[in-house]
Structures are given as structure tokens and as C-alpha cells.
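Fold sample X.
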Amino acid sequence: MTQSPALKSSAVADHSRSPVSFTTHLTVEQLDALRRCAEDISLRFEAWAIVNALVAGGYAETGVAGVVTVTAKGEEYLRTYAK
């Protein structure tokens, strides 16, 4: 019995073992907000869409009373891309 072409197995990369890191590039506005946050400047009046994107991407986190802080991932992103 032969397999149909749709059922043939194919090699699929196991991304959990891949040394390649996939990084989402931030917009100019998001990068600017992340930079200000890293300098302890409040993002209180920043557009929530920008803050939510930073939090969702793991670059920042929201703490008590809505205080936004930069995560280790955010700090690494700034070291790599913010010149």
C-alpha cells in the first residue's frame, strides 16, 4: 500500500532545540517607550497599545499600581538594537 503525497512525513524543525532566536522588532515608538522605561521615566501617559505590546512581547512587565518595568529580555533588546 502506498502513501499519498499529502501523508508523507517531512522533516520539521524542532524550534525548542533551535539555537536561532526569533526576535520581533519593535516599532520606533515602542523602542522609544522601552528606552524611557529603562531610564526610570514613567510610561504612565504613554499609549496603552504601546505598553501592552511591550508587555505581551516580554520586554516589560506591569507591576503594582500599573508601574511598568523593563525585563531582562527588554534590557537585552536595548543593548542589541538601541544605538
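Fold sample Y, listed below.
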Amino acid sequence: MKMPWAKKTGLAKLITIFASILGISVGLCGANFAAVETISYSSASGGILYGLKEFLQVSLTITAVLEAVAILISLGSLVLLGLAYILIRLTNADHNRK
């Protein structure tokens, strides 16, 4: 399997990595939401199935929080990398004028 950032360097590599993390996290968060909703409305009323339902709800909630954190970190990183790119372009433009 070829990684999308294999032949990139510097900012391009970081942007590709964080964009990949963002895309995967958003997809998993959507799937996690669908699973939690399905489990929440299931009719497990007691016994082993009720314990399994509670376990799945807790574990899916924890993974949803971790995915939300990954989304926020990758969005923040992409914004900072975008600002870094703009700053680099502006400083290079100043050096080219001299």
C-alpha cells in the first residue's frame, strides 16, 4: 500500500498527513455516531445483552471523544500549516524583490 505522503517533503508532507488523519477521523466519527444511535434504540432490556449494550455505549463514547480530539488537532494543525505557508510565501516574495 502506497502512502500518500511518500514522495512529499516539508509542509506538503505535514499537510497530507494531517488531512489524512482528518478524513479518517471524520469517517470513523460518523460510523461511531451511527453505531451509538443503533445501540441506544435497541431493545436489550436485561441480562447479558444489557451488559453488552452498556459496555458498547461506554466504549463507543470513549472512542467518539478520541476521534473528536483527533479532528480538532488535525484542523488546528492544518490552519497553522496554512498560516506557515502564507508566511513563507510572503517572506520569499520580500527576498525576491530585493
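Sample Y note: Helices lie at 10-40, 47-97.
Also: Residues 39 and 56 are 8 Å apart (CA to CA).
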